[in-house]
Amino acid sequence: MGRITSFADLIGIIKDKASQSKAALVSSKPASKSLSFHLSVLRATTHDPSTPPGNGHLNALLSAGTGSRATAASAVETIMDRLHTTGDACVALISLIIVHHIVKHGRFILQDQLSVFPASGGRNYLKLSGFRDEKSPLMWELSSWVRWYASYLEHPLSTSRVVGFFVSSASSTFHKDEYEDMVSSLTNTDLLREVDALVGLPQEACKIPDIPFSGGKPLADKITRLVGVRVFSQRALHET
What are phi and psi for residue 149, nearest 5 degrees? Predict the structure, then answer.
């Protein structure tokens, strides 16, 4: 846990402990696996800017993809609910890291539920373009990361609805033949739309905000590793 530097940090820690304690009491009773997963999400998405989710937490969350479709759907709903109900930049960023981890490493059943959430669709799937956390200068700075990261992740989310899988996923190579067959059957209009969606991902990556020099650097480092180090060479070329 990071060092407490403000009253807002203290409030965030108290909120984390209260939420986790309440969820632990509920999940200890005979109930569905969704309550246990809810507790895992709370433990992973803390208010601490110096503590990104570890591999243990992320792997526990990915385990929802080994169950039924209903379990995967409940898991995605829990993550999205955490993302959309928080006003804290750290919680929002960690929630987006979890979403990105599902995109890159989740099993198909979990990725499929993420792809169709929400069922109503829409242009702005994650709906964070107006996110602002004004509690402190650091939270204000991290808010720009929330807006950018959500916009970046919306590209693979929207593309997955067209091609049927996440192109940036580690498992996407298994769908290569299916994707080539699908592309050959597209009309010119559909093909152009598909190309625009794929090109948009590296273009959005080049808009990555500056790395914060204060307590949010561990979160930023975690995100840059997920996006890929090649982003920065692309960004350098873009800015020259």
Answer: -65, -40
Residue of 23, 164, 41, 183 lying closest to 98 (CA atoms) = 41
107 compared with 179, residue with greater pLDDT: 107
Q: How far apart are the first and last CA of the chain?
A: 39
What are the angstrom distances between the C-alpha of 222 and each of 2, 54, 101, 107, 235? 16, 10, 11, 21, 18
> Which has more pLDDT, 8 or 55?
55
For 45-54, 132-141, 174-183, which range has the lowest pLDDT when averaged over its residues?
174-183
Contact 172, 166 (CB under 8 A): yes
The torsion angles phi and psi of 208, rounded to 5 degrees, stand at -55, 135
Per-residue DSSP letters for 112-139?
HHHHT-STT--S-SS--TT----SSHHH
SS (H, E, C) 29-96: CCCCHHHHHHHHHHHHCCCCCCCCCCHHHHHHHHHHHHCCHHHHHHHHHHHHHHHHHCCCHHHHHHHH
Report whether the peptide linkage leading into residue 118 is cis, meaning its omega lies within 30 degrees of zero.
Answer: yes
pTM of the entire predicted model: 0.76
pLDDT of 140 strictly over 90 = yes
Residue 51: φ, ψ to 5°? -130, 85
Q: Could you tell me which residues come within 8 angstroms of residue 109 by beta carbon, excluding any fewer than 6 positions away? A: 65, 69, 72
